């Protein structure tokens, strides 16, 4: 720590410089305090709002299962807000002190693994040998599919009889301080909820059959707190994806329920993925309350690369700001496929045959370098596309406006420039199938969890599913990945957080 300067020895010039420095520091500190107070007020208001709806009268239109889902989501959101509030102001005392319920001892029949923590050195600073005078025992609940086990942590107490010094090994850092779940149990709950799409009330029943029914409210608190802890990883993953010069984008609807309302409305999940040709394998989901294009612009920020997408109008403003549009040939092909399936159109069959030739070239170039892929596209794909374009223009003059055939032709002709840009760059894919495959877990999950309970819960699901799906893309078992990450995360340096990202993760 630097000592304070002797003001009497400073010149007028030095005093002015010191005063300017102090004013700058005071101004910066004032701005930080103002920001923190704003965040605290916002979070306090938000948590009060959630609690009001948690204890409000239930709508008769909600089924018992839907009511259970809503309870879980409210408890999870409240736990997440409390964790964020603690991070902003860790020294704050709760306005309303609440009585903590006494924790029920873990069942004695569960297998126990004793883990001992002792000081590295039992020599007192005064020179005497420390004497063991007791120990503290804490238990954490672990879970492997179908089996509960207990980790019993024994921390010996060592004291010096001469100077009465008392030492103990420190408490191992955990994602949830003073909680009973291990990283393994938390990983199982997260994977079951966000990868296997099992709502918490179903997990409660499964745990009950294994020997211990963990209350849904407790599971919800774990999910909320764990989601907050994992958010820095998701932020780092987003930065890694946006460092790519070519990415995919797509969106899918998800029903969202506003607590206190009697109906759901359509929200959207946006998916942003790396290409099949990129060294980085990752996908990031972004949950938004609508399909407005501003959500895509907010996510992309200052990114200015090549965006592979469909013809959704929400992206158009981004293209006006410098992002290069890359069309999806699969969408164009789908128009002709539907036309052929409906009435066996010979025109559609001809278009499909030509597009099939383009995809055959892509199969040949799949494992090539970007330069070689560009070269084969110029040699083989470019003539096919030129002929296809001339043929489409000729056919368009022969079909009536408004017909299904005209609509199929118009889709390709109006987007021809975007559809053929992949010829210019070997790193650009021919279609958007990569991200459409990555968005399927959301489509599979909708039938199980019915709705997102709030914007906060939707964003949390998007964040955690980003890590789980990215782990899958890199060939990792999501459970093994999350268990290791949640074990290492409490002690991981912020500067080394990238080591825990799915594409860089190496099991400890």
UniProtKB/TrEMBL annotation:
It comes from the Bacteria. This is IS66 family transposase. Residues 466-503 form the Transposase IS66 C-terminal domain. It comes from Pseudomonas rustica. PANTHER family: BLL1576 PROTEIN. Residues 178-459 form the Transposase IS66 central domain. Residues 122-164 form the Transposase IS66 zinc-finger binding domain. Residues 42-115 form the Transposase TnpC homeodomain domain. It holds the Pfam family zf-IS66. InterPro entries: IS66_C (IPR039552), Transposase-related (IPR052344), Transposase_IS66_central (IPR004291), Transposase_TnpC_homeodom (IPR024463), Znf_dom_IS66 (IPR024474).
